Amino acid sequence: MLSEATTLALPTIPQTMKAVELIAPRKTALSTVTVPELPHDGLLLKTRCVSICSTDISYYEGHLFPEEYPVILGHEYLGEVVAIGAGFDNSADVRIGDRIVYWGQTDFGGFAEYRSVRPIFSGQVTADTFWADRNFYDDRMASAVKVPDDLDDLHASLIEPTTGAMRSVLTNPPAPGDRVLVLGSGPIGIIAGSLIKRIFAPRSIVSVDLNKHRGAFAEQQFSDHAYVPDELAETVPEGSYDYVFDTLPTVHVADEDKDPRRIAMRKIRPQGTYVLYGASQEMQKFDTWLMLAKGINITAAPFDVRFFPMHRSANVIASAMHVLRAGIVDAAALQTQVCHFDDYRGLTDILDNYRTTPHLKTVVDFR
């Protein structure tokens, strides 16, 4: 149990903070809001860095929707502990000043100067589940890890997306010697491809993305060849891949036969594995005839904490941190842009142009 002195919030914590709120699709505001309360069994964190996620962009563009507006986006988060709740389980030896990264299911609140979290660290087993009204059970607690001193702030914010990719790959791994296709060469595609290339022993691994800048980066990091969708459709024989990892966002194409997901299903072998990573509340086009004709195994790592509890994700986030430290995922190469939090116009420009930029990971720096 913590001492009484340890549980008190530091006197320098203000009552209000600046936050970037999404008030409607493609509409943001720089607002002054109340600093979150310190949870009895949690932590209050002062924001250091938050990297922008494609999920943030999906909310920004209106492909995903919060339960209500306004909402503060941002969840690929690194924060510094400024207060510890009186009922906090401190078996992980968390102290004021420690840096914390967490992974939650459908979380908001990062683009603000402070946030609270109720963490679960590797080795702890606890839960506070609830029905999320989006067809799965979520947890009000989040898996978390302490960041060691040798990991840079800007790179540490990439622990969260690495955790997401690792959950999916570890739950649905390729077999050694598989021929792998990664759909999408955004940050998650790069992370997943790097993990598969360096750990799971594929025979070959290629990528596809409409953005040629990202395709070239994928070839530097893991990909034997980076295709654009038309090239994949026209030059690759059907049945060429055993395993597809789909990180694509919402896709709209005039010619449905050129939908990259349909192309990938044509190129996968019968009984191949198709892993879906990305999330959208818009219905996406899957070729049900090819699924039936080939017996394609469509799978995903579940959000539902009844089947993938948060305490299991706590072990994954600890591993994700080691993956970055070991260079299996190259955080320094992935983090290609920094936007200071006080540059509100620059941040909104980044949100507007995210899909076409040559950049990979943009980190919002609060320091």
From TrEMBL:
Which InterPro entries does this one have? Answer: ADH-like_N, GroES-like_sf, NAD(P)-bd_dom_sf
Annotated source species:
Kitasatospora viridis
Has keyword Zinc? yes
One Pfam family, please name it: ADH_N
This protein is called L-iditol 2-dehydrogenase/threonine 3-dehydrogenase
**Keyword Thylakoid on this protein?**
no
Keywords assigned: Metal-binding, Oxidoreductase, Zinc
Annotated Gene3D superfamilies: Medium-chain alcohol dehydrogenases, catalytic domain, NAD(P)-binding Rossmann-like Domain
Q: Which domain of life is it from?
A: Bacteria
Name its co-factor(s). Zn(2+)
The family line of this record is: Belongs to the zinc-containing alcohol dehydrogenase family.
- What is a single molecular function from GO for this protein? metal ion binding
For this protein, the record's SUPFAM superfamilies field holds:
GroES-like, NAD(P)-binding Rossmann-fold domains
**Per the database record, which ranges form the Alcohol dehydrogenase-like N-terminal domain?**
42-117
